[in-house]
Amino acid sequence: MQFTDGTWTFDTEVIEVVVKNPQRDEQEREMLNALARYAYNRYKQIRDCVNPRKCKYMRVDQVREQLKSPAKLRKVCNLFNMSEEEVQYIVDFVKKHLKYVK
Questions:
Q1: Closest by Cα among 44, 30, 55, 49 to 91
Q2: Could you say which of 4, 7, 8, 75 has the lowest number of CB atoms within 10 Å?
Q3: Is 70 helix (H, G, I), strand (E, B) or coil?
Q4: How far, CA to CA in Å, does 72 sit from each of 24, 48, 64, 78, 85?
Q5: Is the pLDDT of residue 101 over 80?
Q6: 43 and 57 Cβ atoms separated by less than 8 Å
Q7: Quick one: pLDDT at residue 21?
Q8: What is the tens place of the pLDDT at every residue in 17-35?
Q9: What is the DSSP letter of 99?
């Protein structure tokens, strides 16, 4: 699956290979940093969209629970013009690789 953020085009297969490799060149580090920024910003948008209590942040597991509802998943997809796979991939990436998100 591929998705685009401005000038960056992220391919999920390439990302998985780069994440597993501890020795990264400069371009791979730059790509992962750009993806982390993009994924975090998208995750915040997704979280805010499915959060029933706007004044209280949700944990990643709570966001996943909310996205199990087909209506909320469709709402997120339509609002942000994303596919269901992209939404799920971003939430999974944030959970696995962004340690500052709880």
A1: 44
A2: 7
A3: helix
A4: 37, 12, 11, 10, 14
A5: no
A6: no
A7: 82
A8: 888 888 888 888 888 889 9
A9: T
- Token pair of 24, please? 């990264």
Amino acid at site 59: R
Sign of CA pseudo-dihedral 39, 60, 86, 27: positive
Kindly indicate the confidence band of residue 89, based on its pLDDT and cuts at 50, 70 and 90. very high
Contacts of 34 (CB under 8 A, 6+ apart): 5, 8
Helix (H) or strand (E) holding 41: helix 26-50
> How far is residue 79's CA from residue 99's CA, in Å, rounded to a whole number?
27
Q: Quote the tokens at residue 31.
A: 């790509």
What integer pLDDT is reported at residue 46 of this predicted model?
93
CA-CA distance, 83 to 27, in Å (whole number)?
27
Q: Are strands 2-5 and 8-11 parallel, antiparallel or unpaired?
A: antiparallel
Amino acid 71: pLDDT = 93
Using alpha carbons, select from 89, 84, 49 the residue that is nearest to residue 66: 49
How many residues does this entry show for the chain?
102
